[in-house]
Design goal:
Length: 99
């Protein structure tokens, strides 16, 4: 009988690395990028930003101005628009989910 270890209490020989699931909660894979864009919200305000990574469901954005919790992300290259909601902030970065 195989003994359970602290690495895997089930003792089935597989490595139980819970850090992966805690550290990466994305529902779709991300792609590193460096795209210019603007954040636009209903009051008519807009600020420039840099999109650092992108997935089907969200993005990591670098911005050096205060922004509201929801806004439109407009890519400079093709004017594609995505409605966004902020899910985390750590100046000057923020993570957004597309809504």
């Amino acid at each position: 009988m195989e003994r359970a270890t602290s690495a895997n209490p089930l003792g089935d020989g597989a490595i139980d690395d819970r850090r992966k699931s805690v550290g990466d909660r994305r529902s779709s894979p991300r792609t590193k990028t460096l795209k210019g864009a603007q954040l636009v919200w209903p009051a008519g305000s807009a600020v420039k930003c840099i999109v650092r990574n992108l997935s089907e469901t969200g993005a990591k954005i670098e911005v050096h101005s205060p922004v509201p919790g929801t806004f439109e992300l407009v890519f400079d290259s093709d004017q594609t628009r995505k409605s966004c909601r902020v899910v985390w902030r750590k100046e000057p970065m923020m993570g957004v989910r597309f809504i």
